[in-house]
Design a protein that fits this description.
5-stranded antiparallel β-sheet, Rossmann fold, PH-domain like
Length: about 650
């Protein structure tokens, strides 16, 4: 290939080809930088800088008069390789350094030095721990002077928020740190800058809780003056009995009542009166919202009610050890987290699960006894028979001291692979027939049938034998207006009138639809945004509706949302009106393919929310307020 640009200097000559940079030094040395290895290019006067993925850079001399031409050529030349490195990484966290995730491929990398350095790719499935970290600022003279005007010279200040990720790939653990927010002189926990970085930590924790259930989350301890901590892990309440007073308070508030008509009341009445042992299937795949519904029923009950999450069984645990592992968890729930034996078992289980994830116990494949010893080494008798007897004795004691029954809610069976789901159900069979027990599980019948196909057995008959009764969660049963009203109240947002409430419901339906799980995510984002921005940001009707509409757009139309953020300084009434009519500008890149009709219906409702007075149409003042809301809403954007 011929030379496209050549810049001879006394120290050597830079030649630019169609696929590489090549520098020939005056002493005869040669340095070649292929375009696929260049992350970004910059020019300064008579110099060209090529930034490499590892954070280093190469500096070469060029002619200042050709600087613009060279920069334009190289920017276009490296664009395909840059796209390969970043394509699909549309989920990001952090501002100082950025953790970018490709959910489809299940990998992530870290951008540092304002994007000049890009780390290697890591697998999400290799994550075993994510620790949210906070670095306290030193008490130097600058920090003291900054704190002095507030009159709080002793106030603790923070210099950095981040996350320390631990990965296990079979060898030694690998640690990857990401600096989410950096404050050189330190900030207080009431600072908006701290709040924004804390919100990024919370979003990351929420994402990992949902997408990486095998990753142990270590959150920062609650601080009264700090920004909100990470949201609760979706569909994974603590593996202990919820305080009866807390559940009774939620039940009295009527938060869940009406959202699924009379179904919750009916199931609650049934499980409180049915004969035991009883097994109930809440049917539906993960996206159906069956897990969310299961939690609603769980929260409506009091007494001997326990939650069992199945994420820890999703690794390749030998199936002959599953009954022991499951029994240990059930016994821990019944004994309580405070008992000495429960603490000991929790420690062993943590080590065991990490060992399973790393492959340490499975490399020998046949040595399943090693796993058993690691998990239950302190038990005097590890036999399955003794586990079942211990479980039955604890159930009898709990039931006789309460209302004659013990309820176990089993979450996540519909997340497991078909074969794994069947193996875990096989393990559960040892405990299902215990008098006084009621098991309620979120489970996908089709997945169980599919898992039985590999055995050559009738999956339908297996399912019907295992579960004595059940029903399927239907979205048509879901009362969206009631759900919206209840969750607006949780976020301390009070619509002025029924018309405003109807507007919220309409925006939700036109975006995420009547999907309980999608609505749960939407209102989790609203609660986070409300906590970070404060009451003033939601004071007016127009501002409340606009912020909610933008959250809806983030969830359903992320491409269109990103385009609006990019063009927020160019918004005019004519521009918004054209979008509402389906006539965006030539460089308009949103919404996603096939989403145009749905987006138009949604955007017309959004324009009604933007219109401040609701009479004269969108004004330039409305556009300015909308642009401000766009900037604020970016706190919760995950795409």
């Amino acid at each position: 290939m011929g030379i496209l640009f050549s810049f001879p200097r006394s120290q050597g000559t830079l030649n630019i080809y169609a696929d590489r940079l090549e520098f020939l030094g005056s002493a005869g040395q040669q340095e070649v930088v292929p375009f696929p290895e260049i992350r970004a290019v910059y020019t300064y006067e008579d110099s060209l800088e090529a930034a490499l993925p590892d954070g280093t850079s190469k500096l070469f001399p060029i002619d200042p008069d050709l600087r613009a031409q060279v920069l334009d050529f190289l920017t276009k030349a490296i664009e395909p390789y840059e796209a390969q490195r970043t394509q699909g990484f549309d989920c990001s966290f952090g501002s100082d350094e950025t953790l970018e995730i490709n959910p489809e491929r299940g990998v992530f990398h870290v951008l540092r030095q304002n994007g000049r350095e890009i780390s290697e790719e890591y697998k999400l499935t290799d994550l075993v721990q994510a620790e949210m970290v906070e670095t306290k600022a030193g008490r130097d003279l600058v920090s003291a002077l900054l704190a002095a005007p507030t009159g709080k010279t002793g106030e603790e200040r923070v210099s950095e928020l981040g996350v320390l990720l631990t990965l296990q790939t079979g060898g030694e653990p690998v640690e990857v740190s990401v600096r989410i927010g950096s404050f050189p002189f330190g900030v207080s926990r009431t600072s908006p800058d701290y709040g924004q970085s804390a919100a990024e930590q919370a979003k990351l924790a929420s994402f990992l809780a949902e997408r990486c259930p095998n990753c142990r989350l270590v959150l920062l301890p609650p601080v009264e003056t700090a920004a909100p901590q990470a949201l609760p892990q979706p569909e994974t309440p603590p593996a202990v009995e919820a305080p009866a007073a807390e559940r009774a308070e939620r039940k009295a508030a009527g938060v869940e009542r009406g959202q699924f008509g009379t179904l919750i009341d009916g199931i609650r009445n049934f499980v409180e009166q049915c004969g035991t042992p009883m097994t109930i299937a809440i049917q539906g795949d993960w996206e159906s919202g069956s897990g969310s519904f299961l939690r609603m029923v769980y929260d409506s009950l009091s007494g001997n009610v326990f939650w069992l999450s199945t994420w820890q069984f999703s690794q390749s645990v030998p199936k002959e050890q599953l009954p022991l592992l499951l029994g240990g968890n059930l016994i821990e729930l019944l004994e309580g987290a405070g008992s000495a034996e429960a603490k000991s078992r929790a420690k062993l289980l943590t080590k065991g699960v990490i060992g399973i994830a790393s492959g340490l116990f499975l490399k020998g494949a046949a040595d399943s006894q090693t796993l058993t010893n690691a998990l239950f080494g302190t038990d005097p008798d590890n036999s399955l028979e003794q586990k079942v007897k211990q479980f039955q004795a604890l159930v009898k004691r709990k039931a006789s001291a309460g209302n004659g029954r013990v309820l176990f809610f089993v979450d996540g069976l519909n997340r497991l692979a078909p074969a794994q789901a069947v193996e875990l159900l096989d393990a559960m069979r040892y405990y299902l027939d215990c008098p006084g027990c009621v098991f309620i599980a979120s489970v996908d019948r089709e997945r169980v049938v599919q898992g039985m196909e590999g055995r050559g057995e009738n999956g339908e008959a297996y399912f019907d034998k295992l579960f004595k009764t059940g029903f399927r969660v239907l979205q048509s049963s879901f009362d969206v207006p009631k759900y919206v009203e209840d969750n607006l109240g949780r976020a301390n947002i009070r619509p002025q009138d029924p018309e405003e409430l109807e507007h919220y419901s309409q925006l939700a339906v036109l975006s995420v639809g009547p999907d309980p799980k999608a609505l749960e995510r939407l209102f989790s984002s609203l609660l986070l945004l409300r906590s970070v921005m404060g009451e003033a940001a939601f004071a007016s009707r127009q501002r409340r509706l606009t912020m909610f509409a933008l959250l809806c757009m983030q969830s359903r139309f992320p491409g269109a949302y990103r385009e609006l953020v990019r063009k927020r300084d160019l918004l005019t009434p004519a521009f918004l009106s054209a979008l509402a009519a389906g006539a965006g500008p030539e460089d308009w890149a949103g919404p996603e393919e096939g989403e145009q009709p749905a987006f138009l219906a949604f955007f017309q409702d959004l324009c009604a929310a933007i219109d401040m007075d609701g009479e004269r149409g969108i004004s330039q003042e409305d556009c300015a307020a909308f642009a401000e809301a766009l900037s604020a809403s970016a706190v919760t954007s995950m795409k």
